[in-house]
Amino acid sequence: MSLPSSKPKLPVAVEKPTPYTFDLGHLLAEDPNPVTLDRENLEQSLAELARDGAQSLINQFLTTCPLSSTAEGVLLTLPAPSTRLPREKPVPQAKAPTKWERFAAKKGIKPKTREQRRNLAFDEQTGEWQRKWGYKALNKKGEDWPIVEVDMEAEKKRKEGTTIRGDGRRERKERVKRNERLMRKNKGIPK
User: Fold this and answer.
1) Does the pLDDT of residue 40 top 80, yes or no?
2) What pLDDT is stored for residue 15 in this prediction?
3) Which end of the chain is more exposed for a tag (fewer CB within 10 A), N or C?
């Protein structure tokens, strides 16, 4: 059985009349030499040209960049890019702030954080996290208590047909209606 004929090993050093220029941060090797291609063996001459460029880039990496060995393998640290790449489109213009953004900046209003938007609050009495609003929420605390303390002065001023049991719910509903009314007023929507 005969062994297949192996291809001859190509030289590691690439010799060109004008040396390559490199931008290792972008993995770029620029060849300033004129390209001469053999029209009959176009694919082979293009492959040789690409191989020379890749070989010179690898040589440059191995001689100039620091190597470090870790548990994952050998790492090569690339330098910062030196060539500025052009943009496809111009840099976008800054948008003019809206009326609300100008007002918020003037008053020092900042958007709520993720923690402030959460619907959970810590209940000191039970020692558990509970909802701030919604089903069985903290804003409904006291509405289902069996015993309610009565203020006699407030009881005398109470409207006929209302009970102390519905006060919490009534106040909550009034706050919701007031917020909706103010929201419509802010947006300019009539009743």
Assistant:
1) yes
2) 84
3) N
